[in-house]
């Protein structure tokens, strides 16, 4: 982590010394991201920051707008059968991939065969493998998906990038049909994209020639780069620092449909005891965290769900576990831990907000005898150790937003391979399965609200807040939009 931050700061410092008088460009937009891209191969990527970039490189059958509504993208229309299991997509003609290849239904077949693990291929997506029964392409511009059962939120899955048939080198040079082409990725430094002159969507044509995305998590380096015009957009800023420059830049702070949690490994002793998890939940003062780590720019949460998802959000959970240190001590004593215990909190060091949150939590848990040690690791180490191998006790992280409620709550499904809290509740699984198969929207809402209630009561994690993304933009930038999932829609941005 320290090496990564040092290289990022060193790289920018050298640029600043060499070109401190550089004039801002109308042809290049420069923005920072906090984490190193994990992979530009969509089937191998798990990081929200990376997806926010590659949504500009790839298109799916459908796309989404700033309100989360789905719209046709590579398909111009679609039909759903009366029994709600067959989806027929009518594809657009005349679209080309960045390498010049013509887009047809063969690319859809290739993509979804791999995603769902059809034709003896290993599945790239557990969700697609579970839900898709078969696919077919009656002709070059018709593509059909048949699901194993009705799935009310299936269309939200079809924003998945369509990849060109047979091309597999996306990790080094991703190729899609999107508004921007991949140019290069310099480790620890930047990602460069360039405008796709032949982009098919005339309503979303890019105007900025080049996008430079810098890997920078050191806030002082970001602020310096903004002031010396090396960045046009600086994000993941503290409220205090953002406000201090708000007279020179446009300040935007908005919820992200993310859920920051203190994740607890439910299979590690003593966190396998529900009483201990409840005590931890009651000992944590979320208002202090939002104030101290987020500059009061955040929305307090009570389950793994943000109110951004509207009607699916359960707004009746705030009274289940109130912040009460005295009661938390009593619960700890009843669980046999009146003297507390030692707890290691593993945190990705490139996210200042999570490190700050962990430090506040450590002080709060001292009050009930829990002695916390904060272990900061590099992002890639966190992905491997915590997210993949579940080798940890506790962690602070934020779950990226999703369009479909199922994709938000699936993280706690017992057999889901990314269920890194190791939560195992048969009632939750059964309710979740019912929600998946339900096509009546009101019934789906009830099932998903009950799933949220189950999570709150059993406390597999402490659900803290939806932290705002606070950023500063050059005053002449127009078209910046926020989305219910992390997405930098560069094609919508332009300079005044």
Strand composition percent: 15-25%
- In terms of quaternary structure, the protein is single chain
Largest sheet: 6 strands, mixed
Number of helices: 14
Q: By helix and strand content, what is the structural category?
A: alpha+beta
**Through-space gap between termini:** 38 Å
- Total beta-strand segments: 21
Helical content stands at 25-40%
Topology:
Blueprint: H1 2-18, E1 28-33, H2 48-54, E2 62-64, E3 70-72, E4 75-80, E5 86-91, H3 105-116, H4 126-131, E6 132-139, E7 142-147, E8 180-186, E9 190-195, E10 210-215, H5 219-227, E11 233-234, H6 239-244, E12 250-254, E13 259-264, H7 274-283, H8 286-294, E14 298-300, H9 325-334, E15 341-348, H10 352-366, E16 370-377, H11 379-388, E17 394-399, H12 405-409, H13 426-437, H14 441-458, E18 461-467, E19 469-473, E20 477-478, E21 494-495
Parallel strand pairs: 1-10, 15-16, 15-17
Antiparallel strand pairs: 2-3, 4-5, 5-7, 6-7, 8-9, 9-10, 11-19, 12-19, 13-17, 13-18, 14-18, 20-21
Helix pairs in contact: 7-9, 8-10, 13-14
């Amino acid at each position: 982590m320290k090496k990564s931050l040092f290289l990022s700061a060193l790289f920018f410092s050298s640029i600043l010394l060499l070109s401190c008088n550089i004039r801002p460009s109308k042809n290049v937009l420069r923005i920072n991201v906090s984490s190193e891209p994990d992979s530009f191969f969509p089937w191998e990527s798990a990081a929200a920051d990376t997806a926010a970039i590659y949504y500009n490189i790839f298109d799916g059958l459908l796309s989404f707008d700033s309100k989360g509504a789905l719209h046709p993208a590579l398909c111009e229309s679609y039909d759903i059968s009366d029994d709600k299991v067959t989806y027929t997509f009518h594809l657009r003609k005349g679209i080309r991939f960045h390498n010049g290849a013509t887009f047809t239904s063969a690319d859809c077949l290739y993509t979804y065969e791999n995603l769902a693990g059809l034709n003896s291929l290993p599945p790239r997506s557990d969700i697609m493998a579970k839900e898709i029964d078969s696919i077919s392409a009656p002709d070059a511009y018709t593509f059909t998906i048949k699901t194993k059962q009705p799935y009310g939120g299936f269309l939200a899955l079809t924003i998945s990038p369509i990849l060109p048939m047979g091309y597999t080198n996306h990790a080094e040079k991703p190729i899609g049909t999107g508004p921007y082409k991949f140019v290069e990725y310099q480790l620890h430094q930047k990602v460069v994209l360039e405008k796709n002159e032949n982009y098919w969507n005339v309503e979303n044509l890019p105007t900025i020639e080049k996008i430079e995305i810098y890997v920078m998590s050191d806030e002082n380096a970001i602020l310096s780069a903004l002031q010396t015009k090396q960045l046009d957009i600086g994000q993941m800023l503290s409220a205090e620092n953002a406000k201090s420059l708000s007279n020179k830049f446009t300040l935007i702070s908005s919820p992200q449909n993310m859920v920051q949690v203190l994740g607890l490994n439910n299979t590690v002793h003593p966190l396998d005891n529900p009483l201990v998890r409840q005590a931890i939940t009651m000992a944590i003062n979320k208002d202090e965290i939002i104030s101290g780590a987020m500059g009061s720019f955040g929305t307090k949460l009570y389950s793994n769900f943000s109110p951004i998802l509207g009607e699916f959000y359960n707004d009746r959970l705030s009274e289940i576990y109130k912040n009460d240190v005295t009661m938390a001590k009593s619960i700890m004593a009843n669980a046999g831990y009146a003297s507390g215990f030692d707890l290691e909190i593993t945190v990705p060091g490139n996210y200042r907000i999570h490190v700050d949150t962990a430090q506040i939590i450590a002080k709060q848990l001292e009050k009930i005898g829990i002695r916390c040690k904060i272990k900061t690791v590099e992002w890639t180490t966190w992905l491997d150790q915590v997210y993949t191998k579940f080798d940890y006790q506790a962690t602070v992280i934020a779950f990226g937003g999703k369009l479909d409620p199922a994709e938000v709550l699936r993280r706690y499904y017992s057999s889901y391979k990314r269920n890194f809290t190791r939560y195992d509740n048969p009632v939750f699984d059964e309710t979740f399965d019912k929600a998946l198969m339900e096509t009546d929207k009101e019934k789906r809402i009830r099932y998903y609200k009950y799933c949220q209630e189950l999570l709150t009561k059993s406390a597999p994690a402490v659900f803290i807040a939806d932290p705002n993304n606070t950023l500063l933009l050059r005053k002449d930038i127009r078209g910046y939009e926020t989305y219910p999932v992390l997405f930098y829609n560069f094609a919508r941005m332009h300079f005044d």
